[in-house]
Amino acid sequence: MGSGAAPTSKSLPSYGGVANPIGAEGELQRTISWTGAFWVASGVPALVLFSVGGIAGNTGKLAFLIWTLSMVMGFVQSFTYAEIAGLFPNKSGGASVYGAAAWVRYSKLIAPLSVWCNWFAWTPVLSLGCSIAASYILNALFPPVDAASPAVAQWLALHGAELQMSDADKTAAAIAALSTGIRTWTLFQTTLGPVSLSLNAAFFIGAALMLAVFAVQHRGILGTANFQKYVGLLVIIPMFIVGVVPLLIHGINWQNFSPLVPLAAPNAAAPGEWNVAGWTLVLGGMFIAAWSTYGFETAICYTREFRDPARDTFKAIFYSGLLCLVLFTLVPFTFQSMLGVEGMIAPSIADGSGVAAALARMVGGGPIVESALVMLMILALILSIMTAMAGSSRTLYQGSVDGWLPRFLSHVNEHGAPTRAMWTDLLFNLAILAIACADATSFFFILAVSNCGYIIFNFLNLNSVWIHRIDSAHVPRPYRAPTLVLVIGGVLSFVNVIFMGAGAKVWNPVALWAGLATAAFIIPVFCYRHYVQDGGRFPAEMFEDLHVGTEGAMARRKAGALPYLTLVAGVAVLLLANWFFQL
């Protein structure tokens, strides 16, 4: 493919030495250390803003515990990903690509499923983040009008006596009369099955933000990492402040943390019981939290771009995990302490648009502080968007290089950026953005469907490590995780499946089935690449990465039937959890 041809592993430096930072034309370039990947992954903590209100609306006073448990699970699982990443110094694209290399020996269809599910789990961060950032910008330029607004009281004083209707209807009429047209304007809107679609003002603002992120990433990973280092500092430090200062000023409101029981019903503050319905809501919270808390595994998407992957891979994911461990436990705890369940289930917190205002009240700030926090929240969301585009585009790129996805995705520009994969991300997310900007129901439907893919990816990858240990025991490992940690990771893979089977329905009745259908879409995509474009053969580079010389050598399966039994057990657990846990 000319300059877009896939790099070969023969041309790359071996593990153990410091790689040449200047890559050949048409290749990803080795230009960053683990700190660069850390800063690219520093956008992950901002994902807490996506669902802090939604999780509280379904789990009540258990919300802080949901976030903590989920983050601890993600941290334990990361040691598995660090080991398998170390096996492939010449690959980009992250844990899904490394896990796919284990499964390909046993099924040509399961391996690309890992890559595909990881991509459609990560890529909606672009559209979801842009939709929330757009709502912040709209709120700043055209403040929303509600019943408590002074303008409503003034309007009612002038016009209320003329209206022959109830007080509630008069208030609704005042809000309608005072609301800025831009907030309700839309170029086009419709309904598509369980979701709505709208080309409204938030859509166009979000699209502009997405294009700005694309422009920064066009310069390659080094430019992206340098940019995100400064933005990350502007975001991470205030998140620490917001997590600590309210507790120092106001103390901990312990009444907002007890009793530790589920809600009686979603989005209602009344406490419930530890029955099947209560457990279903809790598992729904664990399901959606995983989409955020596990996300720092994106730090190992850049192994092919590390100067010294032997040292940088483990450090990147470990220190990114520590950052997330602190922020994902601290920020939700402080939110719950200050706002309580009633405050956290407010619509503006659930959809993310009122988070900045809530933060300003928590630290005791006025309009200036609120405006500053709005800007910081927008930067935080842009940071998460950049993290998602950098990671998901490299997953598409490596999937193409390895023969899973269409060839055109393996092109990179003169800066070493996978631009065709980035354009694919961009165009896909413009369509998703129109859904995410429509309403909160559509927003959480997208979130739930993408997380189904993320759980499938985690299940396959947490089990890929023991397959690699059996089939590639002879291959040196720069980092070798403790066996006990890997066993725990294998158990957690099934726990995650329970979260999906029981919890996806909490967010939308058809979310699970929509997620499985989206996952299955990889079958025709892979078949086109493998059987039409490649004539039923994988690229030679893939065999080298598997540490085998030929496709015949790849056919030796030392793990026997164990991988197949694992898949059958995973499907059984999914269906049983979906059947047993009901609202």
Q: Key features?
A:
disordered N terminus; mainly alpha; transmembrane helix; 2% strand; two-stranded antiparallel ribbon; 583 residues; 24 helices; Amino acid permease; AA/rel_permease1; 2 strands
Give structural notes.
66% of the residues lie in helices and 2% in strands. By secondary structure, it is an all-alpha fold. Strands 1-2 form a two-stranded antiparallel sheet. Helix 1 (34-40) crosses helix 11 (221-250), helix 1 (34-40) packs parallel to helix 13 and helix 3 packs parallel to helix 18. It is globular, with a radius of gyration of 24 Å. InterPro entries: AA/rel_permease1, APC_superfamily. The chain crosses the membrane at residues 37-56, 62-82, 115-138, 197-218, 230-252, 276-296, 316-335, 372-391, 427-460, 481-504, 510-528, 561-581. It is a multi-pass membrane protein. It comes from Methylorubrum aminovorans. It is found in: Cell membrane.
Overall geometric form: globular
The total count of helices amounts to: 24
**End-to-end span in angstroms?**
53 Å
Oligomer: single chain
Which spans of ≥5 residues are poorly predicted at pLDDT below 50?
A: 1-26
Report Rg: 24 Å
The overall strand count is 2
The secondary-structure class comes to mainly alpha
Largest sheet: 2 strands, antiparallel
Order of helices and strands: HHHHHHHHHEEHHHHHHHHHHHHHHH
Percentage of residues in helical conformation: 55-70%
Mean pLDDT: 80
Q: Order of strands in the sheet with the most strands?
A: 1-2
Beta-strand percentage?
under 5%
Membrane topology: Multi-pass membrane protein
Protein name: Amino acid permease
Transmembrane segments: 37-56, 62-82, 115-138, 197-218, 230-252, 276-296, 316-335, 372-391, 427-460, 481-504, 510-528, 561-581
Keywords: Cell membrane, Membrane, Transmembrane, Transmembrane helix
